[in-house]
Amino acid sequence: MKVIVAIDSLKGSLTSMEAGTAVKEGVLAAHPEAKVLVKPLADGGEGTTDALIEGMNGQRVDMTATGPVGAPVSCYYGVLPQQRMAVMEMASTAGITLLPGRKGDPLHATTRGVGEMILDAIGRGCRSFIVGIGGSATNDGGIGMLEALGFRFLDADGNEVGEGAQALGKVASIDMSQAEPLLGECTFRVACDVTNELCGTNGATYVYGPQKGVTEELREPLDQAMASYGRAVAAAVGRDFSKEPGAGAAGGLGFAFQSFLHAQLVPGVDLILDAVGLAEELSGADVVVTGEGQLDFQTAMGKAPIGVAKLGKAYGAKVIAFAGGVTKEAGACNAAGIDAFFPIVRGITTLDEAMKPEVAAANMRAAVEQVFRLL
Fold it and tell me: Which of 8, 48, 322, 362 has the lowest CB atom count within 10 Å?
């Protein structure tokens, strides 16, 4: 029996690889002769860096970078030396959780720290990048990141415009002559699950601005400033990316990646499954095991376990999911490719007790063993 395991983290309890290891132990308890391979799983958001560091023998790089309001913050990213790849989350330096008191400052919040992480990784020899851009505190169109990388944004008098959304409407020209030259050797794949354009009622400012502190009075002026910035960028790079799906992601950071770094914006699950090489391992697999902390209707709408399920079904494997809990609506997961799913909690308990790592791992092993005894 060949079993491939790709299970998302049980947040607050088990990492992706810890959960996967517990699954493997359960399978082997029922079938000692089984061939079981565990792959890390994430969706491009929180936890992606940790999952790939742990699951792909990566190295964690800790550093200090500019935070969303300009103060230094401690952050980290992952390096996969064999692939010369860096894995990072923009939220590590520009995330909404880093705002003091969670109070947004859209006019000044900056993505500069993202550019500083990229520069650090380039200095360590990385030339391939996976970047998750969820959870941003910014609405700066990526100016901060780009300025850190050496691009200069100038007003009509030739002065630098500064950072944050307050700078967007001032951009009249862009000097690219001092940009980091090694960027030309780099490829960027950006985990992006939204399709918003840069501007308009479906754009960055209107849709995501309010959660970052954009008031109703600021919304239209900032959107107009973003549009003006978009036109200046299009003139500088020779192509207008403002209408591209995902340009409005992370306050326009998606637009910056597309326009200046030639990035591919890819759904997070697809990007991670490709990065870990799951498809290459599925040939001849009898069973694929996936899951997450809780299976519900949102899972069925395309979260990481469904990405695994679709790939597993394409290779003719049975797909089984395990979760800390399941809701009444989780039945939708069956229609989305999961043949059967099972909660792992074994009796009446408190949430705190169930989420203890040693308890969750033991419950996972036991539930998996019983299912695979039946198989």
Answer: 362
